[in-house]
Amino acid sequence: MATTNPPQLHHFLSLHCLHKRKRSLLALLSLPLLLLLAYNGASVFYLQAPFPASFSLENCAGKSRKWASSSTKLSSTVMLSLKEENPPSIRKTHFPILQKSKNSVIFEAKRMGKQKPMFKFLRSEAGSDRFSARVKEFFGSNSCQSRFFMTWISSIDSFGDRELFTVESLFRSHPHGCLIIVSNSMDSTRGIEILRPFLGKGFHVNSISPDFDYLLKHTVAESWFNRLRNGDVDPGEVSLGQNLSNLLRLALLYKFGGVYIDTDVIILKSLSKLRNVIGAQTIDLETGNWSRLNNAVMVFDKGHPLLYKFIEEFALTFDGNKWGHNGPYLVSRVVSRVKGRLGFDFGVLSPMAFYPVDWSRIGGLFLGPRNETHSKWLSGKLNHIRSQSYAVHLWNRQSRKIDIEEGSIIGQLMSDSCVFCNSSALNL
Ligand SMILES: *[C@@H]1O[C@H](CO)[C@@H](O)[C@H](O)[C@H]1NC(C)=O
Ligand SMILES: *[C@@H]1O[C@H](CO)[C@@H](O)[C@H](O)[C@H]1NC(C)=O
Ligand SMILES: *[C@@H]1O[C@H](CO)[C@@H](O)[C@H](O)[C@H]1NC(C)=O
Ligand SMILES: CC(=O)N[C@H]1CO[C@H](CO)[C@@H](O)[C@@H]1O
C-alpha cells in the first residue's frame, strides 16, 4: 500500500502553495494552464488559510510541476464524479432501506406526541466520566499513530461483513492506528467476539457506549439533546439513530480530535498526512467549485471551530423529516457560510479523495468486465482510484444489496486492502 504522499496530497499542498504565492505563480505559469486547472476544479476548492505546520512548505516548489501534469488526468475523473445535483430528494417510499428496519436503531421513535420516548441509549450512566475515561485510556494506553472513530447506532446483528471490512481496510492502511467504535450494541461481550480476530492480530480496536451528555456538554446541542430526551423535539419520520450518528461524529471529533469514518468506506491509503479536511462529494463543472460536501470521512483536530459550527447548525436546524438535512447538507451549508472567514483553517478535498464515484453510479464498481472495452475502462478506472483516492465510500444505502462480481473494481480494491483476505470477505 502506498504510504508516501499520495498524489491527492500533492494537489493539496501545491494548491496551498499556489494560494500563498499566487503572484509569483501567476508569473510562472501560463494563463492557459491556470484556466485548465480552474476548469478541472483541482483538488482543493477552497483553502482558508495556511495549513498546519506539519506540512512543510518545501514541498511547494518540487510538487507543483507534478500537480500541473497530473491535473490533466483529473479532468476525466471530474466528469465521472459529476452527476445530477439533487440526490437526496429521495423519499422514503423509493428507498425502503431507509426506513426503520432491522438495520435501524434500537429504539422506536414514534411521532412526537406527548408521550416520552424510551430512548434507552440516550440515557447516561451514573457517573458519566466513564465514557471519556474509557476513550482516553484506550487512546493513551496504545501508542496510537492515528485515532479513528466509527459510530454504530444499530443492532449488533446488522454489524455485518461490510462493516467488518471497513475495519479491515482501516488496519491494513494504519496498522498502528487505534479505532473506537462508538456503539451501545457493540460494547458487549458479543461485540468483543466479533472484533476478536482483529485483537488477535494485535490491532487496537475497542467499542465504547456513547455518553451524549458528556459529548454535548458546553455545546449548543446540549439543550437540543435534553429536549429530545424529554420528548420535546420531533424526531421526524426518518431514523433518529442515523441522525444522531450525524451529531455523534461531530461531537467525537470536537472532544477528542481524529478521523471519523462511516462503516461503509474502504480505506485505501494512510490518512495520516491529512489534517482538518472534509471531502467534496460533487463539484460544479462550470465554476469548478464544490457543490456538496459529505460527512462520511472527516479529519479534524480537537476543538476545531468548524466542528463547533457544525454542531451548532445541527442543534439549530435539526429536521428529522428531510433526508440528509442534518448530515451532508449540513456540512455543505456551514462550510459555504464560513468560507473566507478567518479562524477556520481547513481544506476541502476533491471528490476523488473519498467519493471517487457518486452514489448514483456506485453499482458500476461492483460489475465484472462485460467485454473488452468495458474491461479496459474498468482497469483505467481502477488505476485512477488506486492512485488518487484515499478511500471509497460505498454508499451502502444504494449498494448494500449489490453482489461483488469477479474482476470488479470493488473486488480488486478489497483484495488490495484486506487483512484476513479470506473468501468470505471477498464475497460480501
Ligand atoms: C467559487 O469559489 C471561489 C473561491 O472560493 C469564489 O470566489 C467564487 O465566488 C465561487 N464561485 C461560485 C459560483 O460560487
Ligand atoms: C461492452 O459492455 C458495456 C457494459 O455492459 C456495454 O455498455 C457496451 O455496449 C459493450 N460494448 C460492446 C462493444 O459490446
Ligand atoms: C475469515 O477470517 C476471519 C478472521 O480470522 C474469521 O473470523 C472468519 O470466520 C473467516 N471466514 C472464512 C469464510 O474463513
Ligand atoms: C434530518 C435528517 O438528516 N434526517 C436524517 C436522519 O437519518 C436518515 C437516515 O440516514 C436520513 O435519511 C435523514 O435524512
UniProtKB/TrEMBL annotation:
Matching InterPro entries: A1-4-GlycosylTfrase_dom (IPR007652), GlycoTrfase_DXD_sugar-bd_CS (IPR007577), Nucleotide-diphossugar_trans (IPR029044), Put_A1-4-GlycosylTfrase_plant (IPR044789)
Coiled-coil regions listed: none
Signal peptide start and end residues: none
Residue ranges crossing the lipid bilayer per the database entry: 25-47
Keywords: Membrane, Transferase, Transmembrane, Transmembrane helix
Domain Alpha 1,4-glycosyltransferase: 300-424
GO molecular function: transferase activity
Pfam families, alphabetized: Gb3_synth (PF04572), Gly_transf_sug (PF04488)
Stated name of the protein: Alpha 1,4-glycosyltransferase domain protein
